[in-house]
Amino acid sequence: xxxxxxxxxxxxxxxxxxxxxxxxxxxxxxxxxxxxxxxxxxxxxxxxxxxxxxxxxxxxxxxxxxxxxxxxxxxxxxxxxxxxxxxxxxxxxxxxxxxxxxxxxxxxxxxxxxxxxxxxxxxxxxxxxxxxxxxxxxxxxxxxxxxxxxxxxxxxxxxxxxxxxxxxxxxxxxxxxx
Amino acid sequence: xxxxxxxxxxxxxxxxxxxxxxxxxxxxxxxxxxxxxxxxxxxxxxxxxxxxxxxxxxxxxxxxxxxxxxxxxxxxxxxxxxxxxxxxxxxxxxxxxxxxxx
Lengths: 178, 102
Hints:
The structure holds 2 protein chains of 2 kinds. By secondary structure, chain A is mostly helical.
């Protein structure tokens, strides 16, 4: 059962990821990324990470991708991408190296020699990532990173407002008003 | 059907990460490059969850939350920068941004 789900949603995830980098239109790229995120949410549920799966759908597929689509709509989508190469042979090289490392990764999975599961303690029980279990960890052993991250979010939101509000055109207008 | 080993998820995450890295290196549209970064972060999250399952440890799932928050902060600031650049340049092509070139 798990193997069937892995095959189906693995194909969805990879096709979505490929459409991110191959689509000419950024909207299709965003939709492909959304498909990949939903497929990953399925994998999280399979791995008993229930809260992570819910947050993945709400925050990533919901909020982050909506933000992406808003910005795509804001700056327009019909502009053809300039494909001149500033660094010669950069694209063929990048694709070649990418394929080579993907091959290496698949070889690592297929061969038993490089399997990483023997490193795990024998008889390890998969943790059940319910909201209660995650919250207990989050507010005890992960409390300091949690606070640091809240500071990061405040800084990021102030930075975004500063960048988006104080535009050059607005600044000129304010200067002439003064 | 064979049993799904956690290393299968590791392999899938590696494939997704490298698709994202290839997109980052080959595309010139700042938005697509951003989406490639998101793809790479998602691939790493899958690795965290699969590793947490293999090791019987909840810390992998907690790490995902922190990656997620950092990714959200990065997207907010990054998209604000793209919009600000676009107001000035009317293009999302990163090759045109070379003022800081030494």
